[in-house]
Amino acid sequence: MKPTLLVLAAGMGSRYGGLKQLDEVGPNGETIIDYSVYDAIRAGFGKVVFVIRKNIEKAFKEKVSNKFKGEIEVAFAFQEKDAKIEGIDKMPDREKPWGTGHAVLVAQDLVNEPFAIVNADDYYGIEALQKVADFLINDCNEKHYSMVGFHLKNTISENGSVSRGVCSTDKNDYLSTVTERTSIRRIDKTICYEENGEKIFLKDDTIVSMNLWGFHNNIFEHTRKMFVDFVKNNPEDPKAEFYIPLVANDLLEKEAIELKVLTSTEKWYGVTYKEDKDDVVTAMKNLHSSGKYPKALWNIEID
What we know:
Blueprint: E1 4-8, H1 32-43, E2 47-52, H2 57-63, E3 73-78, H3 100-105, E4 115-119, E5 122-123, H4 126-138, E6 144-151, E7 162-169, E8 175-187, E9 190-195, E10 198-202, E11 207-215, H5 219-233, H6 244-253, E12 258-264, E13 269-270, H7 276-289
Parallel strand pairs: 1-2, 1-4, 2-3, 6-12
Antiparallel strand pairs: 4-11, 5-13, 6-11, 7-8, 7-11, 8-9, 9-10
């Protein structure tokens, strides 16, 4: 059974200032999502599920997903702030959805096989997608998950700070914990973040999570139960967000799973800030001209 790629594309893009999921960064108008789907097809994925908001569905299909007809099976899930979740009679009123864990949960009925998760606005590269695809096809089971880790130095924006999941692993590259660190930035030749007013320095080769996970589909039920409790415990907090690492860490603490960290040497590209776009455009142009991608990713007409 071929694995599924779950693309999280419902984010508001608050720091970026718009629908960065639909921004053109490739030489033929490709979006970052185009590269993720193209690499996923090459890696052996059989289906892609996009988690989006209803109010961008038309634009998203016209700009992105219509290109994939005939290339890979496509489905859509919708992450709205009041999306119905079993076990919750009425979702609390709030202005924004509940985070990446909630985004995964709304796709539960569409994913019946092992699956990988990617962010719509992050370029991961073929090596990373191939590693997680091979794992999902050959090694994934109900107690054996994975994530692709990147070297921190390859994930820094030149235009501002970033948030990254800093990973702790054992000697066999199994994840112990992943800890979200915010405001990570490069200062001269060092990388650091601030905690309690002090600079904490990180090594260039620190392994970080970029939200590229490889899961068995049994994670949905555990995620649902955790989310129900999370909502009950945060009924009036408009900023409370339910993240994927919360679920992974909980399963690891309970020793319900083991999670293999598959290290990628790829350079991450993304548009966290508007100023990042020029860097991404240049990088994609170079990847095409070097032969890593063909002159055009898709040779079909867009409806």
